Amino acid sequence: MRSQTAIFSKLVCGFMRDRPPTVLSGTTCAEAIQQMSGDHASSVIVTDVNGRLLGLLTEQDVTRRIAFQIPPETPVDQVMTRRVLTISAGEYLYNAIGRMRRYNLRHLPVLNEDRAVIGILDMYDALSEASAQMVQQIDLITHEGTLEGLQKVKTAQVELAAELLDDGLPAPEIQALLTHINNDIYRRVTDMCIASLATEGWGKPPADFSVIVMGSGGRGENFIGPDQDNGFIIEDYPDEEHSRIDGYFMELASRLVATLDTVGLPLCRGYCMAINPMWRKTLSQWFRQLDGWGRKRNRIALQLSDIFFDFQPVWGHNPDLARRLRSHVTAMLHKDRAFLRAMYDETSDHNVGLGLFGGFVTEKEDPYYRGQINLKHHALLPLIEGARLFSLREGVEQTGTLARIDALHSLGIFDATEREDLKGSFVQITNLLLGQQIADFRTGRKITYFLHPDSLSKRAKEHLADAMKAIDRLRDRVRAELAGHRA
């Protein structure tokens, strides 16, 4: 039977129809309709001579605005729909469905990375993939970008994750979806804050910038209820403009983090947010800060680097800002093995939670969690950190843990067995953690990364132990190759 929740992992590019017929601005309605008829299409794209989308002419436009109402030689520009909503080919299909339902659209042009039209999504094709009971969930998590609407999106996330997990979708795919929803909230809140600043007389952003997320958000590995880890990359500007330009971005950051907190993305307790000047810098300032961390290699620099190195952009009109910063990080660490050794030393106490005789190491000090395993600190982090360190050493720019493992296998760093063992370990541990967090949420308990081994079957315990052994072997390799000695 087809999965009832598979819709949330599908992409627009898998369901769009081929690019519809295209006509140039100035084409007559008669010619446009003839083009539609000849191609058996229900719409036609109108572009300028450079291929830029100007409008969309649909069957509804023909019946409501053209037929028996205007001369056939009327230019298509006069009757086409000008304010055309579009969607990226790499966007999730559920987002397209939500947008089309919200605005009562039958057609949605699909764009590539260069903003060129490469296809069109038909409402019938999109909805044919969604089961009736999923449409309500789609409406909830694509809610209109108001404060109340975004709060509903956050509330709907947990039940969506639970349904996907019950439906057998692997936890890493659910994490990617949760991250995507959270990053979409970032985009919408950023737009809301920029609009509110404009209405209050602040004007438009005085310089190009990107909003970045770090940590699990940058890796695409959010669990339930992540806090904020964000920053700004701002294009370079003259020093004498600093007070004016940074004043704007300081106000924007203040509104952004406060609104995100209200929506349901809590403030970072470590102050790792754009309101902190440490995480709000021009591109050149970021370069200097990274070079400074590389020279100092003290504990604070290493901890800040660990937070930062998994960054990804979530908002911005100039992708070159994030690309150049990523290239700088890659070049810097590819050459600096001493810094990578220092990074390992800083996390060398993140040991895998297995005892000498293969038993689980459980919490002994905190009475609330006594007897439970901290799967984040004693399983997941050692794996994430090991994959990160090897990837930084080899110049791998992917930030997701599974993507890093695949890239390291392609480079010959991991053989096929290591690759499968580590990927299987990641899936096993994230499945357990996500399931436990959903159970905690439903029973009103605090959401953490603890799990009691007694809650697992004998077979599940064996699989968890095997996963942790594979991660322990990775830690041994990291220790041998970066720290220069074996356990």
Please estimate the helix content: 40-55%
CATH topology of the largest domain: Beta Polymerase, domain 2
Distance between the termini: 49 Å
- SSE arrangement, N to C: EEHEEHEHEEHHHHEHEHEHHEHHEHHHEH
Strand order of the largest sheet: 1-7-6-5
Give the biggest beta sheet: 4 strands, mixed
Class inferred from helices and paired strands: alpha/beta
Overall geometric form: globular
SS elements, strand count: 13
Strand content: 5-15%
Spans of at least 5 consecutive residues whose pLDDT stays below 50 are none
How many distinct helices? 17
Secondary structure elements and pairings:
Elements: E1 17-18, E2 22-24, H1 29-38, E3 43-47, E4 53-58, H2 59-66, E5 87-88, H3 93-102, E6 107-111, E7 117-122, H4 123-127, H5 132-141, H6 147-166, H7 171-199, E8 209-213, H8 216-219, E9 230-234, H9 242-263, E10 280-282, H10 283-296, H11 299-308, E11 312-316, H12 320-335, H13 337-346, E12 373-374, H14 375-394, H15 401-410, H16 416-442, E13 450-451, H17 458-483
Parallel strand pairs: 2-3, 5-6, 9-10
Antiparallel strand pairs: 1-7, 3-4, 6-7, 8-9, 8-11, 12-13
Walk me through the structure:
With 487 residues, this protein is α/β, with parallel strands linked by helices. The chain folds into three domains: 6-127, CBS-domain (Roll); 143-328, Beta Polymerase, domain 2 (2-Layer Sandwich), CATH 3.30.460.10; 344-483, Four Helix Bundle (Hemerythrin (Met), subunit A) (Up-down Bundle), CATH 1.20.120. Helix content is 52%, strand content 10%. The protein is built from 17 helices and 13 strands. The protein has helices at residues 29-38, 59-66, 93-102, 123-127, 132-141, 147-166, 171-199, 216-219, 242-263, 283-296, 299-308, 320-335, 337-346, 375-394, 401-410, 416-442, 458-483, and strands spanning 17-18, 22-24, 43-47, 53-58, 87-88, 107-111, 117-122, 209-213, 230-234, 280-282, 312-316, 373-374, 450-451. Strands 1-7-6-5 form a four-stranded mixed β-sheet. Strands 10-9-8-11 form a four-stranded mixed β-sheet. Helix 9 links the parallel strand 9 and strand 10. Helix 6 (147-166) crosses helix 16, helix 13 crosses helix 17 and helix 14 (375-394) packs across helix 16. The longest helix is centred in the middle third of the chain and has 29 residues, at 171-199. The model has no long low-confidence stretch (mean pLDDT 90).
